[in-house]
Design brief:
GO terms for molecular function: glycosyltransferase activity. By secondary structure, the protein is an alpha/beta fold. It has 11 helices and 12 strands. The longest helix has 18 residues.
Amino acid sequence: MKMLILTQKMDRNDSILGFFHRWVEEFAKNCEKVIVICLYEGKHNLPENVQVLSLGKESGVSKLKYIFRFYKYIWQYRKDYENVFVHMNQIYVILSSFLWKFLGKKIGLWYAHGGISKSLKMAERRTNIVFTSTPSGFRLKSAKIRIVGQGIDANVFKADRNKRDKSIFKITTVGRISPIKDYETLIYSLETARTKLGNLKVDIIGEACTEDDKKYLLDLKKIISSYDLDGVVNFVGPLSNEEVVPYLQRSDLFVNMSHTGSLDKAILEAMACGLSVLTCNEALLALDLKNKDDLMFVKNDVKDLSDKILKNYLMSAEDRIKLEEYLSAFVSNTFSLDLLIAKIIKNYG
């Protein structure tokens, strides 16, 4: 199989999309040829059968040049690919489905987010397949939907309890610093529970990308200072996918407050690293997990999150190990990267 992949960034060091480098590596294992068209090209180290073509954002070219290069590449290399995989950028399907269908290419769109837009509706009509992680990841009714899970690299995300400091109860959360991630609920819950949590440390890993996000970060820091939590909460900043791993391995609990409505990959990466998790993300309910209620808290409910954090803190060492080993094995058996890519390729026939 020869595959054309379209993605926003091809940069293994990117704090948000760096994981996609491993996806491309796995595609390369299963395909004769892989061509990647990306908006931005950064650092990568890919197999010889992968060719990366940038639309030029890293060099500051105009949007008109992006579009010109896009059509140039998909036409120029038309004989070097049979199928198309578009990752979270439905605009590419809208712009070029007429040409790909004329050329006889099969189009697959990956979309895993709770939001529905006009462009998504248009893309759904034009694509052949829609890949998503869970039922909540694609909320349009369509016979084209294929629920294939997520892809977690168990060779990278793995447990190492020897890195934990037993004198500290450490909580970690990972994600863009944005209101939709609801960090204030975590902060308020810490203020409520910290007197019972002993030596508590919290790492927030992520970047404030937009001006609104940066203002939100400043507001969070004011809240933290007002509750005298400066010595507890640490904003780590953006890290690459692989750089996150030691933080997870050193932690006791992963908390996810996201309101995106789709299965957050960061939750599964934390599980793979042997962490128990707490989330308000309803996508978790679609997973075949035991005792899911123990992993969930009510969205925006400070008291419920505080109570669940305290309950996790008071868990016996034996129960904690059992839970963490169960969650790690669940991710390895259900959401491995090789399994995900195999499912995607199989759907192209």
